[in-house]
Specification:
lyase; five-stranded parallel β-sheet; globular; Rossmann fold; binds adenosine-5'-triphosphate; four-stranded antiparallel β-sheet; alpha/beta
Length: 227
């Protein structure tokens, strides 16, 4: 479902004399349907950079990222938007939402924009918000004023409302209590069981061991410094 081939990336620091910093070289791996792969590696190894490239936020210097038939490395912005709507979900660590949109609508939105009717979308949103222990009295409010942990759970509910064939998870259990962590791990297991291909960064090692079928060390793709 996800195929990464010979992927490289460097950053050009335009405000520092155009210095070019190579941060990734020759990254290559596949993720099959129903499989969860954990990205590991020391701080600075390039895990977040790789995730941003998979989601199409960072341009690749060379290589291919094939997700559901689209090469993210060369796709047009319009194709990336369609991919994000229908195929590739991303649960980031922080919730970014439009102010004044209710929590229920934030979670239902991925279903509404893929053609599900409002009743179905809201039913799924309610189910997820209840499972993630967001009190019902908050569902009609915008999540902008919610606590960090509440926002993270709304973000997770939104990421799991529509059944994306591929999912990127950035620290999905960070700052969650034991009960909600368990809910999130179950959601990941259910997504795998329905065939989702998942790439995740998990600093929570026990969580990683439980849901990941294997790990990939980003350090293997860190360019060796010239000496
Ligand atoms: N926008 C950017 N501009 C310049 N350099 C960057 C940029 N983003 C990342 N880097 C560099 O790329 C390298 C990889 O960073 P990245 O954030 O991907 O690492 P990481 O493995 O996710 O680390 P951590 O676990 O600390 O989050 C680092 O050397 C970092 O300084």
């Amino acid at each position: 479902m996800i195929q990464v081939e010979n992927l490289s990336k460097s950053f050009t620091l335009h405000n520092q004399g155009g210095t070019v910093i190579p941060v990734m070289e020759g990254a290559a791996f596949d993720v099959a349907r129903g499989e969860c792969v954990g990205l590991i590696g020391a701080s600075g190894a390039g895990k977040s950079t790789l995730m941003r490239m998979l989601y199409g936020n960072y341009l690749a210097a060379s290589g291919h990222i094939r997700i559901g038939g689209v090469d993210v490395a060369t796709a047009q912005p319009r194709e990336i938007l369609a991919l994000r709507r229908e195929t590739l979900g991303y649960v980031s660590q922080f919730l970014r939402v439009v102010p004044r949109v209710s929590t229920l609508d934030v979670v239902a939105e991925p279903l509404l924009r893929t053609g599900h009717d409002r009743a179905t979308a809201e039913a799924r949103a309610r189910e997820l918000l209840a499972r993630l222990n967001i009190p019902e009295r908050l569902w009609g409010l915008s999540p902008t004023t919610f606590s960090g942990g509440e926002q993270q759970r709304v973000n997770i509910a939104r990421g799991f409302s529509y059944d994306y064939p591929a999912l990127l998870l950035d620290e999905p259990t960070a700052s969650l209590d034991v009960t909600n962590r368990e809910v999130v791990l179950s959601l990941i297991e259910e997504a795998k069981a329905r065939g989702a291909a998942i790439v995740g960064i998990f600093h929570d090692e026990a969580a990683r061991d439980r849901v990941c079928d294997r790990v990939i060390d980003a350090a293997a793709f860190t360019p060796k410094a010239d000496t």
